[in-house]
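Re: weekly structure request thread

Next one in the queue (306 aa):
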Amino acid sequence: MDKPKKQQLSLTISSKKEGSQQKKEFLVQDWQKGGRESAAAAENKKEEEFQWVFPEEVEKKEETISLKASLHPQQARRRVIGKLLFIIISAVLIGLLFGYAMVNIVTQKEESPSKAMLTEPKQQQKSTNSTAPTTASLLPPIETSIVQGGVFSKKATAEKVMKRMKEEGVVAGIVQKDEQFLVVLGVSSQLATAKQLGEAYRAEAADVYAKTTTISSSIKTTGKESFAKAFSVIAEESAKTLIGLPVDQAKLIEVEKELQAEKGTQKKEVASLQRLLVDAVNQAKSDQSQTAKAAQEKLLAFLAEY
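Done, posted below.
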């Protein structure tokens, strides 16, 4: 018997398009071979799909990087332009202010003579006005030579020493200076006179020391009272009487006239100082040692109040 021949299968797909008929035939030789081809085709499709995904992601990353890079120069340009505008505006304003100041200085220099001419009549009016208020000032300090009997930090101790000196017949007073209390036994304008007066007191008071000091005042006044000259003259002439030297009566009379001319002050403290000096000069004009001691006591009281 003859072996049956293998027959080939064929598929015919027909379609009609505009009245014409087309036929396509596909040969199918083997189902297993066809399965392998279809699996290979599927793998090829998967590989092709994987290969297309990677380039798309790379392109997106490049686009995002290019966008970010394109933004930075624009921001930098804006900042640079803003800084330049700020510098230019600041320079213009500074120039305007400087020019305005220079113009004012020049105009003031040119107008200064006319202003001076205008102020002169005002000054004359102020001088003629006697009722204008004046500022108060301290009395000027007095520089004098003293015979010192002790320096103490407490006033009570100084008062005890002063009391003992007076009981022994020595003129004594307390003067405060720089938070210390000085026991003063006599005053004069010249240091040599004070030293001679100290030698006269040394027999009665062992601890004596002659020196020159300055006494500042704590009294304010609106007038022109100055008691420094009168005090110095009275102190020197009364000290001379105590050590047996002649007195200059002409100086004492001149001081007395000046003190009489300054009477009538309204300030209580200044009036009290003036009365003490008037009493002292009247007693210093005498050639007696007892009145000279009284003059020295008035002068020490003057320094204590000054």
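The mean pLDDT is 74. Residues 16 and 174 are 149 Å apart (CA to CA).
Next request, please.
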